[in-house]
Write a structure and sequence with these properties.
By secondary structure, this protein is an alpha/beta fold. 51% of the residues lie in helices and 13% in strands. It is built from 31 helices and 17 strands. Helix 6 (168-180) runs parallel beside helix 8 (199-210), helix 15 (424-432) runs antiparallel to helix 16 (438-450) and helix 20 (512-518) crosses helix 22. Bound molecules: adenosine-5'-triphosphate. Residues 90, 92-94, 97, 114, 116-122, 256, 383, 409 line the site of adenosine-5'-triphosphate. The site of adenosine-5'-triphosphate (ATP) has 16 residues, from helix 4.
């Protein structure tokens, strides 16, 4: 056998062994992931078992049966209903609220995971009023505390806060109430720092407890306890001492989001292993999620954002625009103002007073849009935020869920729009690579952005390990009919990897943008040329598939992200793995996103509803695209019959929406050609199965009894 063919055979065998090794490593990773999940499940089951055993023991100890059926009857039912209705003005409980209140009133520790706007506050405020004594509430932000105390005082509930802004006189009143039970105080708010730093306060609390007057301890935004959470606050770590010092006082920990890992972590940190968990769905059915391709031209992005706001929210409806950096915040706010949008910036570098002023103007509807960094976060209590726009991608699915979730806390339809461009990925990755699972979390977010088929909502369900629910056409991938074509980019990938090898052999490195730039020549040699944005998309896809990987290097001023060869590059080089790139098909100028700028998500939803209704009701539905407000009414009252439909339209017309309907009908008639355009596009083969599925759905029954209220 000639030497060269012997070498080739050996190389071939070596490659096969390496491929097999890679497969084994993948399998090990898969098994390790599975092992981690099983460990989580194991400790969760142990905790539940212990809690059952604990409650069985206390049942025996108390010689009275202890109900685990939290929706059953309890001795405080009537009084609780009275407080709910007559003090809080709330007609009925929402999901889990009553059960949580009953568990707390039964003296159990409770962990509540309930989406933003779900009604967590009532779960501890109502038992606080119902119980004898004072409830202690730990909340992370001054502004949040101020809002809550103001709200409770307005309801006539004696509430106070002990913070750096509390006057001496007020402090005296609070200490007397704790120590001697004097005065009238039901709910006391403090920041976590008070527990960890003020011995005086803790000693007063001990006296209060000793006298049997500490009714419950509520820990709001409890995810701040966990380093795995997205808002870790060191002072939250010390809150575990509360359960140690006051073991018989029920603790209620509340948060809007917590993965299984975070839940276990915070149960441990707070010393509440036997707590009863109430986990509500993460689904926010009123939020429309969408992602738009972000132009590389900064001004074009601002034009698009301004157009989105001015065309859909012309009546000064509130919104937030999140930006990556402080500088970007200021720039975007300025450029939006130049385009006639009432906007101002908010970031951590501003003086506290200036920040507070911007927040107040926005809260009072004197300012339409806050352009903020993530510093504009917890403590935003505004219920009627109609849109949250991300100027660039967030660092994880969890932070995106939280930030976008600030829209629509009042339950009315609202929009969450994210602008994505691959070049934003290295900016984020160089910030998060040192965090626990930082890169993994970011890449999950990138997958969400890049996906052109998968329901956006289902990505959240997967992330939070929740069974899937119907999106109801409330995301771009479910609502839009999308034309896509798949390009075989295997040759481009091989050429890219070879180029990177050459760069590395010369002891050099390349950032993503440098790599794409250097690839220009090779790009021409490979069968057909990929466009610059397609190449950027390809590089990101290859990083997600581990054909390439990111590496980081620090300079005195910054951390740079470079692209290098990843563990699976060999598979591609040796033709064992094909790389397919999904791009919008058809003419580049008439892409899906250009349609999107004419039809906002909600309008598309209504348009779908209109089409559905016209086929059912012989086209009597007005041929119009309505305002967000009208849409919200229609979407919440989806009519089932022609009579119901006419009734709703009649009501809309007799109210202030009537004029706007006529105005929009006029506008739409002049847009008729554009509508035809869309119809043509829909005739082309589509790949969006979800959209088809959502169209098949029938309209649901109208709740006639509450129609007036909704209108
Ligand atoms: N059962 C109910 N019926 C009607 N409205 C309710 C009910 N419970 C709470 N609400 C109202 O819902 C709104 C949101 O409640 P709350 O502020 O407690 O939400 P949250 O879960 O704390 O949200 P976030 O995490 O965003 O702070 C409030 O205006 C509250 O009065």
């Amino acid at each position: 056998m000639p030497a060269s063919s012997g070498t080739e055979d050996l190389l071939e065998e070596l490659l096969n062994v390496e491929l097999e090794l890679q497969d084994v490593q993948d399998e090990i990773k898969r098994l390790l992931d599975k092992q981690e999940k099983l460990y989580e499940k194991q400790s969760e089951l142990k905790a539940v078992l212990e809690s059952y055993q604990g409650s069985e023991k206390s049942e025996k100890d108390n010689a009275a049966p202890h109900a685990e059926n939290w929706s059953g009857s309890f001795e405080w039912d009537n009084e609780a209903d009275d407080i709910r209705f007559n003090i809080f003005g709330i007609p009925t409980y929402r999901a889990n609220q009553r059960e949580i209140i009953n568990a707390i009133m039964s003296g159990r520790d409770v962990l509540v995971i309930m989406a933003a706007g779900g009604g967590k506050s009532l779960c501890y405020q109502l038992p606080a009023v119902l119980h004898h004594g004072i409830a202690l509430v730990i909340s992370p932000l001054l502004s949040l505390i101020q809002d809550q105390v103001m709200g409770l005082t307005a309801l006539g509930i004696p509430a106070s806060m002990l913070t750096s802004t509390t006057s001496k006189e007020n402090e005296k009143f609070i200490y007397k109430a704790l120590e001697k039970g004097e005065g009238n105080l039901k709910i006391l708010y403090v920041t976590p720092e008070k527990i960890s730093k003020s011995k005086r306060f803790v000693s007063k609390l001990e006296k209060c407890h000793h006298a049997g007057r500490l009714s419950l301890i509520s820990i709001d935004e409890a995810h701040c306890c966990s380093q795995w959470g997205h808002d870790f606050r060191p002072d939250y770590k010390n809150l575990g001492i509360l359960k140690k010092q006051f073991p018989n006082v029920p603790v209620i920990a509340l948060t809007a989001t917590a993965t299984k890992k975070v839940q276990l972590d915070l149960m441990e940190m707070l010393n509440i292993p036997k707590c009863i968990k109430f986990v509500s769905t993460v689904n926010r059915p009123n939020l429309f999620y969408m992602v738009r391709e972000k132009s590389s031209v900064g001004k074009a992005v601002i034009d698009d954002i301004a157009d989105f706001i001015q065309s859909s929210y012309a009546n000064n409806e509130s919104g937030i625009v999140y930006c990556f950096s402080r500088k970007e915040c200021e720039q975007v706010a300025k450029e939006l103002r130049e385009r006639g949008v009432s906007a101002d910036h908010y970031h951590a570098d501003m003086d506290v007073n200036a920040r507070e002023k911007v927040h107040m103007r926005w809260s009072n509807n004197k300012l339409q849009v806050i352009v903020g960094t993530v510093a504009f976060g917890m403590g935003i209590n505004k219920p009627d935020v109609r849109f949250v726009i991300h100027h660039s991608l967030g660092k994880s699915m969890e932070t995106y869920y939280q930030e976008s979730g600030r829209a629509g806390r009042d339950g009315l339809p609202s929009e969450c729009l994210l602008y994505f461009r691959p070049a934003d990925v290295p900016r984020q990755s160089s910030m998060v690579f040192y965090e626990n699972s930082g890169l993994q979390n970011l890449y999950d977010m990138v997958r969400y952005c890049q996906s052109k088929r998968e329901c956006r909502r289902s990505a959240f369900f997967k992330h939070f390990a929740e069974p899937p629910q119907d999106c109801n056409g409330m995301c771009d991938n479910c609502a839009f009919l999308c034309e896509l074509k798949e390009i075989d980019a295997s040759d481009h990938t091989r050429a890219l990897v070879t180029l990177l090898q050459e760069i590395q052999e010369m002891d050099q490195r390349a950032t993503m943008l440098q790599l794409v730039d250097k690839f220009k020549v090779k790009n021409k040699e490979v069968g057909f040329e990929l466009k610059k944005d397609e190449l950027e998309q390809l590089v990101i896809q290859l990083i997600l598939h581990r054909v390439l990987k990111e590496e980081f290097s620090h300079t005195a001023y910054a951390t740079n992200a470079y692209v290098t060869i990843g563990p699976l590059a060999k598979h591609v080089l040796h033709g064992k793995k094909n790389i397919m790139l999904e791009v919008p098909s058809g003419q580049k100028s008439i892409t899906k996103s250009s349609k999107r700028s004419r039809y906002t998500g909600l309008e598309v939803k209504l348009d779908n509803l209109r089409k559905e209704l016209s086929s059912i009701h012989g086209g009597i539905f007005p041929h119009s695209i309505l305002s967000t407000q009208q849409l919200s009414i229609l979407c919440s009252q989806k009519p089932e019959s022609t009579e119901q439909l006419e009734k709703i339209i009649g009501k809309l017309k007799t109210q202030k929406y009537g004029e706007r309907i006529l105005e929009v009908i006029g506008k739409h008639e002049s847009d008729e050609e554009q509508g035809d355009d869309l119809a043509d596009e829909e005739k082309v083969t589509t790949v969006n199965r979800n959209a088809k599925r959502s169209r098949k759905k029938k309209v649901v029954v109208i709740d006639e009894s509450s129609e007036d209220e909704k209108l």
